[in-house]
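Re: export button greyed out
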Amino acid sequence: MAFDNSLAGLERSPVPTRTLADRPIRLDSATDVATQSDNSLVRVETRRLTALFGRAIAVREVSLFFPTNTVTAIIGPSGCGKSTFLRCLNRMHELSEGGWVTGGVLLDGEDIYGGVLDPVAVRRRVGMVFQRPTPFPTMSIYDNVAAGLRVYGGRRSPQLDEQVERALRQAALWDEVKDRLHGSAIALSGGQQQRLCIARAVAPAPEVLLLDEPTASLDPAGTQRIEELCHALKTQYTIVIVTHNMQQAARVSDYTAFFYLGDLVEIDRTSKLFTNPAKQQTEAYLTGRFG
Amino acid sequence: MSARAIRRRAKSAVMTGLVAGLALLAVLPLLFIFGDLIHKGATSIDWNFFVKSPVAAGETGGGVANAIVGTGIIVALACLVGIPIGVGSGLFLAEYGNGRLGWLVRFVADVMNGTPSIVVGIFAWTWLVRPVGHFSALAGGAALAMLMIPMLARTTEEMVRLVPNSLREAALALGYPRWRTSLAVVARTALGGIVTGALVAVARIAGETAPLLFTALGNLNFSTAINHPMQTLSLQIYVYATGPFDEWHRLAWAAALVLMGLVLLVAITARWVTRERYGVR
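Workaround output, generated via the alternate export path:
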């Protein structure tokens, strides 16, 4: 079956054997799950992932997958568990007070909750950008971008300058900061700070990039730049973006997942979900009847 | 302007004046102390005061070189022990201290903070002077460290807790191990506050006298042997101020001025070293 190639950047991708549309959203049997993971085009897959705070369930048995080099948007009303779900994908959820999960998350076919992978190693492969810009205030612009590279051990790598420049270029920030790399990171504008955080996240070359409402605190111009970045960056990374903004989801993503009250209601190609949702709840949300 | 607005403004002006007056009242003693010290001590300070040791009573001249060096050595000894332990436990309390151990450490620190310094002195004498058989600068440093640790632990904890959680998460999400997040990002961000806390602690212990009476004892001669009794400025002031000679009283004022000057110098230097590299926008 043909893949939805309507978006630029996907052209070079090999054609997958399946599309999201013809696989079951809920995986009920173990055999079903087993056949899914041989697909090398699936970068991240969740299996009956349930996230809890103490005894309260925040995300209930979500099974879905994120194909390599695509952008998937997660939408839903406040408190629907979309951020919590995102934080399960790089083991950040368990750092929250009382946070724990059941089920699994496969990264390249390997369960990150399986006990073999170290959470720290997982987070190096799955970068994250938060709602508010979080540059390290005591570090320069350069040091911020280099922070994730230095933590690997190499005190002074000869390629560090190159890697920092590449990351800043990827985040479309290089031209604005190249003359003040050793200046303050917190002197940058909010939008620049957020792109700095993206540069910091992509510098260690992760496989997956998680964006948790990255434009929530930015003005329209800053928002537009981040959205353009999503398109550029998906050629190298698999991106999952949580957003409150449905227009944003429609603009940047290849796939959209709709969460409601901790449940995954529906996931489909963005073009299909927005024009012809399968579930009534999705349609009600998209047309603004609740949420 | 309506009567109501006038009343409001008047009320505001009165209250502002009141708190400003109280603030002035709070700094007034400090100004008096400084003024008095300079007035009574400055005239006795000359070059010899800094480079000579005390002379016998009745003779004029001499200085407090031994006490200045002694204060430096004993405070340095206290810092050597007290700052790593105090800052370390403060970091522990803030970053990992939500369990039972954290509660216990916090409780003990609070109790120790309220312990009179003379009790600490007697404690140090019991355990560090009596078994050894003689007074020493080491025991003095240890007593001061004991005063320093709980102070530092609590101020460090407060400062580290001020670091927003989002920075912690950003570092962890970048693949920082927990310990490295605590040190390289959280403690680094709180460094200014931690240094200020350490300075306050240094300033407090530099002037302590009671614990040193039982430990460092004092020494009329110039000595840098940390295993033996040592003079400090506070001990020197104590001896001179309670002595019968006018010359001694004069020297006590001068020594007090030097002590305050030294504390001020340490404060300014450390502030300058750890100044915010990027300043305020």
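The longest helix of chain A spans residues 220-233. The button fix ships in the next patch.
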